[in-house]
Write a structure and sequence with these properties.
By secondary structure, the protein is mainly alpha-helical. Helices cover 75% and strands 1% of the residues. The protein has 18 helices and two strands. The longest helix has 27 residues. The chain is globular. The N terminus is likely disordered. It is found in: Cell membrane. InterPro entries: ABC_transp_permease (IPR001851), LivM-like (IPR043428).
């Protein structure tokens, strides 16, 4: 039998890992009150990239489904959140105006429902066809929002208002990011995580053992999409502005890929390390190299992929011997096919 605390045994059993995580969270919590707004903005974007990386890593790194439309759920979440806190600008009834937390929760639900509807269709595709299909969905959503100017503001964008200070939104985003990391950790180190890994390694072999691939793909897709919707919802409430061109731009997908690749795909710590490294590189090179920053950044990323394909996490794990291992009871592995 698997204990209720089983998924977290590997996390809380390592005091060093827990200590570093707690210190990092506490340090981030004081950023809005000890630094300038410019620095707070940088750290907020870092949290967004971490959450996007963690959520995309769940569907791609653990389940092996390379989605190139993850930013669609981020952008949709941003607009849903904006519509609910500032409905009058979209011509929506004032009665639906909601607090920030309700708006962000609704953003997550809408993103999850969209994934629930699209998943059975998209998962009929495999490999690069699935990747192209998800990218096409993102492009369609962006074009629809650009066309429906009354709801999105078109190229002009949509201005948002809410009752909270930016510092409070930052803290809420931090709490949401930590919660999503813990939820992802629990999923990865549970029976569902074993099923995802089995599909990632060999879908046909997993099917022959009685594992239902669609079930686990859908689960990962919906959870990852909801997390992207949360990131988008808080993004809209922090910056108080969304635009179909920028908020649904494919650059969000590219940056998410870079975060996961730099940190290490298929590991929990990877997106966290990748998000920190990406933001440091992006902002540091922008200050030092100016307009040449993207070129240098691209060269560094290519070098990283060639010489450190496992990402920063693998480099640190090899150096300090801190490799991750699923915290699932052995019985769970034995019972996995029977549970299907």
């Amino acid at each position: 039998m698997v204990s209720l605390t089983g998924p977290f045994e590997g996390l809380f059993g390592d005091r060093r890992r827990v200590g570093l995580f707690v210190v990092a969270v506490l340090a981030l919590a004081v950023v809005p009150y000890t630094t300038t707004r410019f620095v707070t903005n940088i750290f907020f974007n870092g949290l967004v990239f971490v959450l996007l990386g963690v959520s995309w890593n769940l569907i791609a790194g653990y389940t092996g489904q390379i989605s190139l439309g993850h930013h669609a759920f981020f952008g949709l979440g941003a607009f849903v959140s904006a519509w609910l806190t500032t409905p009058m600008r979209a011509g929506l009834p004032e009665s639906i105006q909601s607090p920030v937390l309700v708006a962000v929760a609704a953003a997550a639900i809408v993103a999850g429902l969209l994934a629930l509807v699209l998943g059975p269709i998209l998962f009929r595709l495999t490999g690069h066809y699935f990747a192209i299909g998800t990218l096409a969905v993102a492009a369609i959503i962006q074009l629809v929002l650009l066309d429906q100017r009354q709801f999105s503001g078109g190229a002009t964008g949509y201005y948002v208002s809410n009752e909270l200070e930016p510092d409070v939104v930052f803290l809420l985003m931090l709490v949401a990011t930590v919660a999503c990391i813990l939820v992802t950790y629990a999923i990865v180190n549970s029976r569902a995580g074993l099923g995802m890994r089995a599909i990632h390694d060999d879908e046909d072999a997993a099917s022959s053992l009685g594992i239902n691939p669609l079930r686990y793909k859908m689960f990962a897709f919906i959870v990852a999409s909801m997390m992207a919707g949360i990131a988008g919802g808080f993004y809209a409430q922090f910056w108080l502005y969304v635009n179909p061109d920028s908020t649904l731009a494919v650059s969000w997908m590219v940056d998410t890929l870079v975060v996961v690749v730099l940190g290490g795909m298929g590991s929990m710590a990877g997106p966290l390390l990748g998000g920190a490294l990406f933001v440091a590189l992006d902002e540091g090179l922008r200050q030092i190299a100016g307009e040449f920053a993207p070129v240098i950044e691209g060269a560094l990323i290519i070098t990283f992929i060639i010489y450190a394909p496992g990402g920063l996490y693998k480099l640190l794990a090899d150096r300090f011997g801190d490799a991750e291992s699923p915290a699932v009871d052995e019985d769970a592995t034995t019972d996995q096919s029977g549970a299907e």
